């Protein structure tokens, strides 16, 4: 039995979801203590983090797009088995920076290898497990890329960050399509708002979805 609550954070590059997650963690961690698990994809444990380093290494320009999608799915499976499922079984609130929707948007649409094919691959990897809530931070591609250029450490810019605007436009369009198809699970927040508002709206959704923790 999985008695915990699983919530994912999604958005195009530069949407500010990771910063929002950090602010939310700082606010709720003191009260929740070890009932809270914060994790990320790809990554979340040593094996998945090793796969992450291969995927995002800017030197790996020869990586085939399907190889990339398979590596994300492999990292996700290990993350689920080693990190997420044990936390949910222990009745924890799990907040995850990216999950399946990222692969559908980035590899399926951004890389143009097929959203349905990537979704099917990840259904196998996850055994169909989806979050109770996905908070989607929406921002136009040009705004997100401008934020990356202005604020991100150049040494931390990865293979996906350096893609052309058309790639990121496809990613955003796929996210919006996913949100329209799954409105009960995926809730959209306008990430062009000031950070405090974005965090407040996100926290309200989290408390609404997982009231037992608050």
Helix content: 55-70%
> What is the CATH C level class, in words?
Alpha Beta
The biggest beta sheet is recorded as: 5 strands, parallel
Radius of gyration: 16 Å
| Average pLDDT | 94
Enzyme class: transferase
Family: Belongs to the thymidylate kinase family.
Organism: Levilactobacillus suantsaiihabitans
Catalytic activity: dTMP + ATP = dTDP + ADP
Question: Could you describe the 3D structure shown?
Answer:
This is Thymidylate kinase. InterPro entries: P-loop_NTPase, Thymidylate_kin-like_dom, Thymidylate_kin_CS, Thymidylate_kinase. GO terms for molecular function: ATP binding; dTMP kinase activity. The chain has helices at 17-32, 46-56, 65-89, 100-110, 115-126, 141-151, 165-181, 195-209, and strands at residues 5-10, 36-40, 93-97, 133-138, 186-190. Helix 3 (65-89) packs parallel to helix 5 and helix 4 crosses helix 7. It has one domain (5-213): P-loop containing nucleotide triphosphate hydrolases (Rossmann fold, 3-Layer(aba) Sandwich), CATH 3.40.50. The model has no long low-confidence stretch (mean pLDDT 94). By secondary structure, the protein is an alpha/beta fold. A five-stranded parallel β-sheet has the order 2-3-1-4-5, sandwiched between helices.
Chart the SSEs and their pairings.
Blueprint: E1 5-10, H1 17-32, E2 36-40, H2 46-56, H3 65-89, E3 93-97, H4 100-110, H5 115-126, E4 133-138, H6 141-151, H7 165-181, E5 186-190, H8 195-209
Parallel strand pairs: 1-3, 1-4, 2-3, 4-5
Helix pairs in contact: 1-8, 2-3, 3-4, 3-5, 4-5, 4-7
